[in-house]
Amino acid sequence: MYHIPVMLNESIEGLNIKPEGTYVDATFGGGGHSREILRRLDNGRLFAFDQDSDAFENIPDDDRFVLIKTNFRFLKNFLRLHDALPVDGILADLGISSHQIDVAERGFSSRFDAPLDMRMDREQELTAAQIINEYDERQLTGLFRKYGEIKNSGSVSKAVIRARETGKIQTTFQLAEAVRSCFPPSKFNKSLARLFQALRIEVNDELAALEEFLLQTPDVLKKGGRLVVIAYHSLEDRLVKNFMRSGNLEGKVEKDFYGNPILTFKVITGKPIVPSEGEIKLNNRARSAKLRIAEKILNDAE
Which domain holds residue 109? Predict the structure, then answer.
């Protein structure tokens, strides 16, 4: 399969779908979530976003469906272009697709000896190889610490700099060998995964895109509209949690003159929903997923 949709039933139930409503699948991928949304619509509409051209192989033959080839950071502009504002619900599964991981030449996985690419949109210029070979030590250290949460990021960046002095680091296996001495053998695979995560986030500007996407959702959603997000690491989940709780990325709840909280959303999930043991057995890549749901409310000012 291109991708097994994570927490399919939980996320679709979280949207609280109205058969005549308008919905957004912000991360189309293999189309699993989209197909389930369409199954529950009558005369409603579904708009999906994906910047990866491979995803276009999965388009369902359905007049109610439109796939928009762009990053979800441009959510509002493209929905306006399609005369689709406001919408009844938005779903975003922030994980990388199984297809992207399993196609060796995409360079997302350390399991294959492949070019250091990691671009979700293969029309963009920046690749992981460029970052590894062109960023200076300070930039690499900050990147590995911030996006990979690697404690010895300074040692890792020094190892990369040393390795590239004898020739460019062009493949995933070359990078793995360059940093092998930086981690205990028992923790090497997990640490390498964090390194690859950091590079992928940088290549695709993932956190900035997520921030821009979240900030647009209040303008895009109707009153009572649902925002459903599945995150896979703490950096993403923290942003989603803060935003749903407070309406801003810092998580600080602002108050009016009388001390009443000014809220944009009602949080439906006090704690995130996580996959069942049964789902994790069937799809190990779901193990780190956290699902959060919020519903747009009206402020007094509205």
Answer: 102-204
Omega into 275 within 30° of 0, i.e. cis?
no
Is 3 part of any domain? no
Confidence (pTM)? 0.91
Residue 136 makes CB contacts below 8 A (sequence gap 6+) with: none
| Residue partners of 194: CB distance under 8 A and separation at least 6 | 148, 149, 150
What are the pLDDT digits (tens) for 213-234?
999 999 999 999 999 999 999 9
Paired with 221 in beta bridges are: 87
Burial class (CB in 10 A: 0-12, 13-18, 19+), 85: middle
Contact 16, 226 (CB under 8 A): yes
Q: Of 25, 21, 43, nearest to 35 (Cα)?
A: 25
Final residue of a structural domain among 204, 224, 257:
204
Q: pLDDT tens digit string along 162-176? A: 999 999 999 999 999
